[in-house]
Each structure stands twice: as C-alpha cells, then as structure tokens.
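Researcher: Checking consistency across runs. Here is branched-chain-amino-acid transaminase again:
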Amino acid sequence: MSDIKTTLTTAPKALPPSDQLGFGQYFTDHMFVAKYMEGKGWYDAQILPYGPLPLDPGASVFHYGQALFEGMKAFRQADGKIVFFRPEFNHDRMAQGAERMCLEAPPLDLFMQGLHELVKVDQRWIPHEPNTALYIRPTLIGTESFLGVRPSRETMFFILLSPVGSYYSEGTKPVKIWTEEKYLRAAPGGLGAVKAGANYASSLKAALEAKKKGYAQVLWLDVEHQGIEEVGTMNVFFVFKNEIVTPALNGSILNGGTRDAIIELLHSKNLPIVERKITITEVVERLQKGELLEAFGTGTAAVISPIGELHYQGKDWVINGGQTGELSTKLYNEITSIQRGQMPDTQGWITPLV
Ligand SMILES: Cc1ncc(COP(=O)(O)O)c(C=O)c1O
C-alpha cells in the first residue's frame, strides 16, 4: 500500500489559544484512516476531514472491546523543524499489542506514511510555545459486525492529532497520589502490558474515587496489593539514596517509551538504575528511614510528573518536602531539550517530518 487519498476540509477550524490547550481538548482538521480485511489486506488509506466514523453497530469494538491505541508526540523545534519522538517504539508496541488483542497491526510503512502525511497536512496545528506539542493518537479497532465471541476479521487503523499543553492542571508541579488497595488495573495474563482501551475502562472508577478524595492519580498495586505496578497512566520511579528503582516489566505493566528513555539516560550517566519488583511496604519503610529522595511518574503526556505526597493506609507521606527533586528536574530538562532540538540527540530518538 503506498497511495493515500487525501480529501481536505472545506471548513478549517480556528486554532485554539496556545496558553489554554490543556490536554486532549481539541482535534485538528484531519484524520488518517486505513482498513484491513482478512484475505484482502490493507486498503482504502485516506486522509479525511476530522469527523465521525461510519461503523456498524455490530462491530466487535462495541461488544468485545477490541480496541488498542498509542500515544506519542510531534514537536516544533526552535529552528522550525518538525520532529517525532521515537515513532518506531510506538509502532513496535502497537504491533505487540495487536497480537495480544487479535487485531491486525498496520505494517511499519503504512504507520509511518499515515503519520507523516497527516502531520504534514495539519502542521499549522503544532503549537510553538514551550511545554506544548502535538499529541498523536494512533488507534486500532475491530470493525467486523457479528455476534458471538471471536476475533474480528476486519481492523480499522486511524490516527488523530491534538495540540496539547500540560497533562495535569498542576503542570510539572508535584502531585498527590492515592495508593489503590481495592481496585486493580491489570493482572498477570491479562492486558496490562498492552495499551488496550479495556485497561483504561478498568482504571476509571479508582481514578474518580481518588480525585474525589483530593488525589491526582492512583498508585496501582499487583494482585497481592503489595508489588508496585504503575502510577495513573505512567510508569513509576523511586530514587533512593543508593539506587533508583522502577518496577520490572512483569507482564501486567506497560512498557513505557518514556520509561525506556529514562532508563537509557540513567545508564548513560552511570547512575544505579535497577528494574526489579518493589513493594509498597519497602517504599514506606525506606521513606520513614529518610532513604527515599524522590519519586516520579513517566509518560508521553507529562514526560516526568513528580510525586509530592503518597497516601497509604490512612497516612499521607510527603516526599522530598513536596518539592520537585533534583534528578526529576534534570531528566525532565534533558528529555524535553532533546525533543526541542536544544540538546544533541545522541540516542537517535528524533525522527524529522519528511
Ligand atoms: C498505563 C500506562 N502506563 C505507562 C504509560 C507511559 O508510556 P509512555 O511513556 O510510552 O507514554 C502510559 C501511557 O502514556 C500508560 O497509559
């Protein structure tokens, strides 16, 4: 597949004010859509004016939840160049997720072609200001219409674009986190390691209840309510006096692109980063002993989100005096400077728009 049919909108929207973008509130003028059918392959790749998708109400996505998505960003660098951050990582993760979800993954060339063409068409939407970006949402859904549980023989791949500012209303300020002991996001053998829509459906109630209690996100534990998994929609890092720990990828944790980049940066600085199981009991014990210096979440949306307060079993534990830590600041500055072209991309993370 190499031809993408493009139909441009006749009613381009007004750009939202870039100081009021928030996260995911606006969509651009166009979207990319391609279809797959067993026996036919990928067909009908198009860039279309942004709008509703015609879907049969019997489509498997509505009944059996066959939905998988990605989250990535494009940036406008200081010299005007438009770049993507590690798009191959996202394609690779989508392909692995599609295998688990019994959906057809778009081949790398279709994914990249759709991405580049769509961003080119909608490039006026990429904001200029610091801490802004174009968030990219590639999505896969099962579209075959049938009843009776089995994998869909048809898949739709689409890409949406959204100009964004800060993910949290707090910006990059430390957030308050609720350790969740009632609800689970994922379990071994389930979908936790892939970006299935179902994981987010599963997480909504806990997040809502935590918000009502005044917490920005939840800290997800494993089925034993001991092992730490993730924080909200981010991976999590704990900076102790003698080591930096992030939970090992155990099959129910998402392999975050930001997590992966942070681990690589820490290795390059010869800092003692360890991927292992870490329990909430260990974190609280070491916090009490004054050994926990910083904790932060990592993800495409916020990059680094410092944890200022951690609630566990009726007590609020303050981390680093509720302030953003030195390492969190340094890592945030480095990743965002590489993304913005203000620091050399020695890791090969940046792909220019062609
Ligand atoms: C559940 C979950 N964990 C971790 C992450 C972080 O992944 P990434 O760094 O690739 O954005 C995300 C995505 O944003 C997520 O939804």
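Researcher: Does this match what you'd expect to see?
Model: One thing to look at in this run: The mean pLDDT is 96.
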